[in-house]
Specification:
This protein is of the alpha+beta class. The protein has one domain (2-119): Gcn5-related N-acetyltransferase (GNAT) (Aminopeptidase), CATH 3.40.630.30. It has helices at residues 11-25, 35-44, 88-100, 112-119, and strands spanning 2-6, 48-54, 57-68, 73-82, 105-108. A 5-stranded mixed beta sheet has the order 1-2-3-4-5, with helices on both faces. The mean pLDDT is 92.
Length: 134
């Protein structure tokens, strides 16, 4: 499998292949974003996109944002679906892409199943996110 960064100017050409994988993550966003919003954010470059390819078939997708923090540059995964983290090889490619953009750490927020999956690649829980509408 090949993980390929999709620049915003190619987002429209690749949207049909990735949208189904991102759509599977949307219900777990707890209303943080809709498909229309993330599509717009990807097309304008606010959210970045990686496509997971098996030959010419898109089998997964990763949407993420780069965040500059006081002591690090973080690649924060907003949505992930399909075979994106299905193997050590895929994780190594993802890590390489993030590192090439200056990331010093990778984070994501997810349900317990995702936390368990990511733990095989060395991820550890850092925070619990909580909130209330006001």
């Amino acid at each position: 499998m090949l993980l390929k960064k999709i620049p915003p100017y190619f987002a429209a050409q690749n949207w049909a292949g990735v949208c189904g994988h991102i759509e599977k993550a949307q219900p777990y966003s707890h209303g943080e974003w809709t498909m229309e919003q993330i599509k717009s954010d990807i097309h304008t470059g606010r959210v970045e996109l990686i496509s997971v390819l098996d030959g010419e078939d898109c089998v997964g997708a990763v949407a993420y944002v780069m965040q500059n923090r006081r002591n690090s540059r973080c690649a924060f995964v907003v949505a992930i679906g399909g075979a994106a983290l299905a193997s050590q090889g895929n994780y190594d490619q993802l890590r390489s892409i993030f590192k090439s953009e200056g990331a010093t750490e990778i984070e994501g927020a997810g349900r317990p199943a995702i936390v368990r999956l990511w733990s095989q690649f060395g991820f550890e829980p850092k925070h619990q996110i909580f909130g209330v509408q006001i």
